[in-house]
Amino acid sequence: MKNPLLENKGFLFTTEFLVGIGLMGVEIGASRLIAPYLSSSQVIWTIIIGMIMIAMALGNFIGGKLADKYPNPRYLYYCLLMSGTYIVLIPFVGRFIIVGITGVFALFVNSGLIIWSSIFVCLILFIPPLMLLGFVTPTLIKYSIKNHNTSGKTVGILEALNTLGSILGTFLPTFITIPTIGTSMSFALFGGLIAVVALIFIITDITIRIRMNRKPSVDNEEDNEILEEPKAKAPLKIKHILTLSLCSVFLIIGIALNIWSNKFVFWNDSEIIYEGESMYNYLQVRENKSDASYEFSTSVLFSVQSKVKKDGSLTGSYYDYCLAAPYMLDNLEGRDSVDVLILGNGTGSFASLLKYDGTDNDVNHFPYNTNITGVEIDQKIIDIGEKYFCPKSLGVNTICDDGRSFINRDDNKYDVIMVDAYTSISAPFQMTTVEFFKTVKEHLRDDGVVVMNINMATGEKGSVEYALCDTVSTQFKNVFKYDVTDGTGMEVFVSNNDDAMTNLGENLKNVNEYSLRMALNRVLNYSISHEYTGEILYDDNADVELRSMGAINTIINNELEFYRNYYKENGL
Question: Exposed (0-12), middle (13-18) or buried (19+): which is 477, by Cβ within 10 Å?
Fold first, then answer.
């Protein structure tokens, strides 16, 4: 006796549609799961897409062979149940696997840590369940051709529904599920949908076979379609019961874990005061009680993107040295205001230093009237900034937009333009090119200053900072580089005003705050002129992703050299 669900084309169509949703939902979710640890750069996206395509190719190939051997798709729904359960468990176990794999490779791999870690993470977390999803299309097509008269039309509908499901699975996580319920619950949702459709079939199938008191055998094609004489022994194979039971238990456990603990990071929980997700980023805010500060990060294994002290004092981070930019202007006392544009405003840490209102003490790092426009693409980061880092009361004009898109439309000119869009993992290529810096120059007043924060400087020719400095040199005469103390950051000060550094020295005479004087003195005394090497980036050819990966390899190798040597001498 056949399962009536197999005679219902609507059920087969629903299966294909939900599998399409789940496939792309997992692909989008994969990048978000990996991003806080290994970044969401183009290199990572390439690895994720490539590995998922490999999984689907293997699934289609193996699924086609199984479809020829077992035309009845009963086995398929057990595979879908296992796949759905696996997907539900991914976000909970994934964080441990990502950190574990990265830690192992950190000890043994001298080059390409992020690349190799990403490949093996995908092999373990995403290849198995998506390969099982690859069984669906060849199996349902084979069954449809054999059992339904309108085979061509049915096959076309199956393919179309898989594509439509994939389209929906692309948009749903990005615009709806991840920003609202988070990555963990998105995995639980998409995996759960696949598991539910499998459970509906399996429970219906088991119910029918128990009622008919027959012993099934997926090894015999005829047994799937012809009612045999009742058997005296148990009608179900133990492996079927075991598979159903284990998957159901793990499915419930996985969903419960994702509801109970949907955090990406499982260390320093006591310091985390906010953890969430937006359309663009994983977001984390920590309260560092040792120095009374707030720290913001989107990439928890590599860096802190923003930091402010609760009392408004300097933090010791790169923002302190960025303050040299407005002090490079002449005639500060005679200006009505200093107009500042920040592209990549983030949480507003730099803006808060320029406009600190002295609520808790008399700290005022730049005691001149400023008009600040901050541009940040992520609205949730803006909201976090206004709550913890740069309150609205400071009067910063914050705009939610892409930095280059905004400056292309903007008609204003500025005294200082800060470009702070280059994170510790990657740089948006559209804000690294000749075309971009030409637009920046058009929006800068003649004696103005551009300051760029580069957070992956290695000092090696061919690295990101050399390419950026060479590129900006095509538009500006003076390019000065300052290596931030105790870190891999670099501040680059750019101007067509030959007196910029002279102005900094003169303005320093009026700075009374000791910590600020020390920071500005370091910029004045230790900045060096950039030596042009001819590595220019254009919109059509900006290989910043590969340069960033090269820089990260260098930085990681330098940081891990001690531990590798220790391991060689003493073992784990």
Answer: exposed
Phi, psi values for residue 393, rounded to 5°: -60, -20
Sheet architecture: strand order including 306-309: 272-277, 282-288, 293-297, 306-309
Rg (CA), the chain: 29
Beta-carbon neighbour count of residue 266 at 10 Å? 10
Residue 429 in contact with residue 547, Cβ under 8 Å?
Answer: no
Identify the helix (H) or strand (E) that includes residue 209: helix 178-212
Q: How many Å apart are CA 106 and CA 400, to the nearest integer?
A: 37
Here the tokens at position 112 are 């390409």
CA distances from residue 340 to 90, 345, 414, 433 in whole angstroms, order as listed = 45, 11, 6, 21
Q: What is the dihedral of CA 403, 37, 462, 565, to 10 degrees?
A: 160
- The token pair at 503 is 């102005």
Number of Cβ within 10 Å of residue 324's Cβ equals 27
Rounded CA gap, 398 and 376, in Å? 7
- Strands, E assignment, 230-345: 272-277, 282-288, 293-297, 306-309, 338-343
Closest CA to 373 of 393, 343, 337: 343
Q: Which two tokens stand for residue 116?
A: 């190799």
What pTM value is reported for the model? 0.79
Q: Which of 339, 415, 420, 483 is catalytic?
A: 420
- The reply to whether 420 belongs to the active site is yes
- Bridge partners, 397 (sequence order): 373
Give, as one character, the DSSP assignment of residue 288.
E
Are the CB atoms for 420 and 344 separated by under 8 Å? yes
Q: Helices 464-473 and 544-570 meet at what angle, rounded to 10?
A: 150
Q: One digit per residue, pLDDT tens: the chain, 572 residues?
A: 567 777 778 898 999 999 999 999 999 999 888 877 777 777 788 899 999 999 999 999 999 999 888 877 888 999 999 999 999 999 888 888 988 898 888 777 777 778 888 999 999 999 999 999 999 999 998 888 776 566 678 888 889 999 999 999 999 998 899 888 888 889 999 999 999 999 999 888 888 777 776 554 444 444 444 333 344 344 456 677 777 888 888 888 877 776 665 555 555 555 888 888 888 888 889 888 888 889 898 865 656 778 888 888 888 888 889 999 999 999 998 899 999 999 999 999 999 988 865 454 556 789 899 999 999 999 999 999 999 999 988 899 999 999 999 999 999 999 999 999 886 566 788 888 999 999 999 999 999 999 998 877 666 676 778 889 999 999 999 999 998 866 667 899 999 999 999 999 999 998 988 899 999 999 999 999 998 888 899 998 877 777 776 666 666 666 666 666 776 777 76
